[in-house]
Write a structure and sequence with these properties.
Oligomer: single chain
Largest sheet: 2 strands, antiparallel
Helix content: over 70%
Strand content: under 5%
Number of strands: 4
Strand order of the largest sheet: 1-2
Order of helices and strands: HHHHHHHHEEHHEEHHHHHH
Structural class: mainly alpha
């Protein structure tokens, strides 16, 4: 999409076009990172459904207004800055409350991990559908409609949620009245609901939340560089003797998103059969780092067979997005269950906000790194792909302690 916007006019067709586009992406992701921390708390004190619907309407309306700039002839950079910032903040209203609602409604311990991880396919389904909508709109040489169509879809889904989605009041995890708990032999005390000041710190004490937050930081840094810059890299290639156009680049990006769906379902099935979350996240991250380097090498220096290139794009989507989905969707619930064992209260929404908030800092950094490298250096795409691969390797290393503990637990279980 970056190259498409640059081609169609001001303010993105100048010598600083790369940096302007990268700055917009960074502003949006910064607003999302701030919003995810705020919403993590809001969904603990407000009705989760109201939070979701408000975010859907805000994201849909700003996306439509973004596309209308094409028809209204708006070329003022600040127009795009304001809309992208509001849009990023609105998008944050979806993830924490929905994870909290899913964790509540699908409380079967045997299936919950798979359901939560499989739910994360919605992100990649959105990438796939959005890419197809964009490619369809570009066949009519009108980029504005791609934003308008996507915005309309978001608004409609938000209204459907308002009508059909079961509500989850803020008190679902903590009774309004204090409940009795045993504090010692013959003693009964009252467990009071958490105050507003305790919500964040109580969630931060959950075991594993720091490690998985760091893990998601590196994973999202890698994923979001691809999310924003992969279509532009596709356009710079010649595959099988054919120059890749903008429409084909959208289709290739959709294939990467389809790989994300497959990878999400695969890792969900894996943890459903063996609950070694750190092992699978690290393994997929290592595989992704290797495949990313292979993809760049083949696409840049060989690229004789289109089928092999598309197969690499699909497998990179599988390996790169699998740990992203597991950590962002499933791990807040898993960490919360571990936290209950050491006395913490159910705070899935806030745990989601912490993990995804730290991860969003990586998401902010990734596209900005790409923009700076492409705008101000001569290193080019090769260095961008090296950063993407190194981020996945760092994500694997960040879970070394978790992998060690899980391996030790599995070994003890099988030797008993």
């Amino acid at each position: 999409s970056s190259g498409i916007n640059a081609e169609y006019g001001e303010p993105f067709n100048g010598t600083d076009g790369w940096l302007l586009l990268g700055t917009l992406d960074t502003l949006s992701l910064t607003a999302y990172a701030v919003g995810i921390a705020v919403v993590g708390y809001l969904c603990e004190v407000l009705d989760s459904l109201h939070v979701v619907v408000a975010g859907s309407l805000g994201a849909g309306i700003t996306t439509i207004l973004y596309g209308m700039a094409n028809f209204w002839g708006i070329h003022n950079y600040w127009y795009f800055v304001v809309l992208r910032t509001i849009n990023g903040f609105s998008e944050a209203f979806g993830w924490p409350p929905l994870i909290k609602m899913l964790d509540h409604h699908f409380c079967n311990e045997d299936k919950r991990d798979f359901i939560l991880t499989a739910y994360a396919t919605c992100k990649f389904l959105g990438i796939l559908v959005g890419s197809l909508i964009s490619s369809f709109s570009l066949t009519f040489n009108t980029w504005g409609w791609s934003f308008i169509y996507c915005g309309m879809v978001v608004i409609v889904i938000g209204l459907v949620d308002a009508v059909l989605l079961p509500n989850l009041p803020p008190s679902v995890y903590q009774n309004e009245e204090a409940k009795p708990i045993l504090s010692g032999p013959g003693k009964v005390e009252k467990e009071m609901p958490l105050t507003q000041r305790q919500v964040f710190w109580q969630a931060l004490q959950m075991p594993g939340i720091i490690e998985y937050s760091i893990h998601l930081f590196f994973v999202k840094l890698s994923v979001y560089i691809f999310y924003y810059w992969l279509p532009t890299w596709f356009v710079s290639l010649v595959i099988g003797g054919q120059i890749v156009g903008y429409v084909s680049a959208c289709y290739y990006t959709a294939l990467w998103g389809a790989g994300g769906i497959a990878g999400t379902l695969l890792i969900g099935w894996c943890v459903h059969n063996q609950s070694v979350y750190g092992v699978y996240s690290s393994l997929f991250s290592l595989i992704a780092g290797v495949l990313i380097l292979l993809l760049f090498s083949y696409g840049t220096y060989t690229s004789n067979a289109l089928f092999l290139f598309l197969l690499l794009v699909f497998t990179v989507g599988i390996a790169q997005n699998a740990p992203y989905s597991l950590t962002s969707a499933c791990m807040p619930s898993v960490i919360n269950r571990l936290g209950r064992d050491v006395g913490n209260t159910k705070l899935v929404g806030m745990a989601t906000g912490i993990i995804d908030g730290v991860g969003s800092v990586g998401a902010i950094s990734g596209p900005l790194f790409g923009a700076i490298i492409l705008q101000y250096t001569t290193w080019g795409w090769g260095f961008v792909f090296v950063i993407v691969a190194l981020a996945m390797f760092a994500a694997a290393v960040s879970l070394v302690l978790q992998v060690k503990n899980e391996a030790h637990h599995v070994y003890r279980t099988r030797t008993i």
